[in-house]
C-alpha cells in the first residue's frame, strides 16, 4: 500500500516545484535562525531570495559532520530550545558527539516517514512489530517505535540484547515484523533455528533492516534462514534518523522521501554534482526540518541515484545500496577509486578468497595500482596459462568497473590479513614531489 | 595409466622452493621429478613424489596453494630418435602438449608429459616403444 499517494506518486514537475518552495523556506529559516549558516551564505552573497527553484541548490555551501561538532551542542539548531521536544545523539567515538534536536512537527513528519516505509514493505495496522534497534540516544529504536504507532500497528519495544527472551516474545506475541540491524537479524535467525521450535510457531513475515550497510547476499541469507521478506531502511541521525529512504516490494533501490529530503550525488573530490547513475557521495538537504535543518549535508555514504518512476507506482528518486564511504576514496590517474568497488568485484568471483590488499605507487609520474589477491583452494592449476587467465579475468572485471587498469598479483594462501572490519586494505606509497 | 603430479603455487620470494623441499623431507616424501614454470611474479612447481596425497596434505597445512593434475610418465630407451617417435605418434592423434620435462641417465630416459587429451595420448603411446609408468613406479 502507498501511505501518502499525493506525495509519493507526485509527477516530476510538481515535485520539483514543491521542493523549490520548501528549499527557499529552509534557507530562510537557517539564514534567520542559525548564525553559522547566515555567515556562510553572506560570504557567497546569497540571501533566501537567491533561491527561485530547486536547481539553485547547487549555489549553497555544504555542511559536514565537523560543522556539527564545531557547533556542539546546539549551535546549528534553528529554533529556541523551548521549541525542541526531543534530543538524540551519536556515539561520538571520534570527538564530540553530534546532537540532533526535533520540534513537535519534526517528530510528526518523522513518524509519517516511517509509516510510509512500513506501508511500502506491505505492513498495515494488523501487524505486530518487534523493534529491536537500541532504544535511547540512538535514533533507531524510538524512530521506528513512533512510526509503527503512527501506522496504527502494534509495537513491541524490545530494544537490543537478550536474544533468547526476544525469540520467545516474537513467538508468544505473534510478531509479524522485525526491525533490527541486518547482522543482528542473521544472528537471530541462527539462534531461532537452534531453539528447535517449528517455523510455523512464528508469524514473522517482514524484516526491516538498516543502520549498517548490507549486501544482496546477506538479504538472500536472511530471507532463507528467517523466512521473511527483508527490506532496507536507510537514514542518519544528522538528517532525521531511519526512514530517509526505504525499499518497496520491487526491492530495486531505496525510495528517498524526497518531498522532505533533497538528494544529490557529488564527486567527493571536485564537489561537482554527478549525473544520475554515477556513484558518488550522497548529499542530503532537509526541506522541512525545523529543529536542526541541514543544507547540503555530506553523508560520506557512496551510492548512485535513479530518477525513473518505480514499478510500485512511487515516483520518488531512488538510491542504490551504499557501496562504501567516501573517506576511503583513492584518486588514481585522476579517477576516483573506492576500495569497496574493488571488494565487490572480488566477492563476485568464486576463484578468489574474499581478502585483498591494494597498493598504490607512482612510477615515472604515473599512478600504479596493484591488487593482491589469494586464489581459492580448488582453483590453483599446474598450468601457468590457467593462472594467468585468473589474473586477466580479475583485471578485466576491475577495468570495466573502475575504468582504469590494475595490476593483479596472486599471492600465496593466508598471506593477506584476515581481520574483519577496520583492517588496513589500502597502502598508498605515492610520494608527491 | 596416468600419474598424479603435484603442483605448488609459489610467489617469487627467496627461499620458497626450499620451504617446499624441507616440508617434504620432514614428512619422508621422496621427489622423483621436479620442474619449475615461471611467470613474472609467481611460479608453479611441478612435482612427482612418492606419496602424492600426503604431500598435498602437508603442503596445504603449511598454507601452500596446491593442485593435482593427471600427467603421463614414460620410460624410453636412452637412444637417439626414441623421443622423436613418441612425439610423432602423439602429434598424429592431434594431441597438444601443454608442457613436458625429461631427464635421462644410463640406459633410460624418463619423460613427463601434460597433454591436452590424456586418453588420446595414452592410445598413441600404445604403438610406441616405451613404457608408460604408474604411480607405483615411484612409491
How many distinct helices of chain B?
A: 4
Q: What is the terminal-to-terminal distance of chain B?
A: 15 Å
Corresponding CATH superfamily of the largest domain in chain B: VC0802-like
How big a fraction of the residues of chain A is strand? 15-25%
Pairing-aware structural class of the strands and helices of chain B?
alpha+beta
Mean pLDDT of chain A: 92
Mean pLDDT metric of chain B: 92
Helix content of chain B: 25-40%
Task: Give helix % range of chain A.
Answer: 25-40%
Instruction: Predict the CATH topology of the largest domain in chain B.
Output: VC0802-like
Write the layout of secondary structure elements.
The complex is a heterodimer of chains A (433) and B (139).
Chain A: H1 5-8, H2 12-33, H3 35-43, H4 65-70, E1 84-89, E2 99-103, H5 104-120, E3 128-131, H6 139-151, E4 154-156, H7 163-172, E5 177-180, H8 182-195, E6 206-210, H9 216-226, E7 229-236, E8 241-246, E9 254-256, E10 261-266, E11 280-286, E12 297-303, E13 305-306, E14 318-319, E15 324-325, E16 330-332, E17 335-337, H10 339-348, E18 352-363, E19 366-375, H11 384-402, E20 407-411, E21 426-428
Parallel strand pairs in A: 3-4, 3-5, 5-6, 6-7, 18-21, 19-20
Antiparallel strand pairs in A: 1-2, 7-8, 8-9, 9-14, 10-11, 11-12, 12-15, 13-14, 16-17, 18-19
Helix pairs in contact in A: 2-3, 5-6, 8-9, 10-11
Chain B: E1 3-11, H1 16-26, E2 31-38, E3 42-49, H2 52-61, E4 65-77, H3 82-92, E5 97-105, E6 108-115, H4 118-126, E7 131-133
Antiparallel strand pairs in B: 1-3, 1-4, 2-3, 4-6, 4-7, 5-6
Helix pairs in contact in B: 3-4
Task: Give structural attributes.
heterodimer, A: 433 residues, alpha/beta, Rossmann fold, GMP Synthetase, Chain A, domain 3, 2 domains, 4-stranded antiparallel beta sheet, 21 strands, globular, B: 139 residues, alpha+beta, VC0802-like
